[in-house]
Structure prediction request, 277 residues.
Amino acid sequence: MHHFDENYFGQFDENGLPMVGFGADAIYNQIYIIQFGLITHDLVLSGVDIDKNTDRLKKSVQWLEANEEKIGETIVWRNHFENPRYGLESGWISGMYQGQAMSLYLRYGQLVGEEKKYLEKANKIYNFFDTPFENGGVKRFDKQGLLWFEEYPSSEPSFVLNGFIYAFLGIYDLWRITSGKDEKATIDSCVETLKKSIILYDSGYWSVYDQLKKELATKYYHENIHIPLMEVLHNLTGEEIFNHYQKRWKKQLNSKLNNNLVHLMYRVQPRLKKFFG
Prediction:
């Protein structure tokens, strides 16, 4: 919550919802509203400022509901801004955002006693994961035939690690409630993808963000996202490979030599890419 309360991303609107940017340039970005909602949900369960955070949570969910786009039997949220880094024009849909929205809806429904309503919505979000990339979806397969859900559905596969895992966690949350065979099959496919591909996100001395640009993760991502996600995956699946990388990346984080090398590569890597194309 620190990043939000300190206006790290931008200002709050008149309803207390986070925005990206300030003044006339401020826009809504659903991922920040979703994550804001997930944080406030955890704070409510922890008994922290229950009235205030329950109101924040409710408003986050209400914003999402007001901005749902229904396509057949699916629910999506489009990003109404460009993403030049991955060559995406306004209107793109993110697998990560869809997964985290599913998690928020399911948690909120359980908290307020409206499980049926939000389970129905979560199922419609899940339906979108079956839409192939070629048809405007986020589902695609790599050269090994492994299943991926793209955080950024770029023309050339990007396969962002944390984005795929968050999509997986949303589907896992749904399966915990439904025990559905289709959801379980999707979960098993995602775990297989991660087991066989996680080595691609290890540079030898630090984790990398995706498979397209192969840039080193920021220290914040390495420490606060990649390492904890490996721990979560190990806890959920029992697969030792995730525990291995959690320990390996934590060891790298605590190595002065590794940190010095990473700081050097943060400066050198962009120049190398510019020089070699």
Remarks:
- DSSP finds ten helices and six strands in the chain.
- Strands lie at 69-71, 74-76, 78-79, 92-93, 139-141, 147-149.
- Residues 256-276 form the longest helix (21 residues).
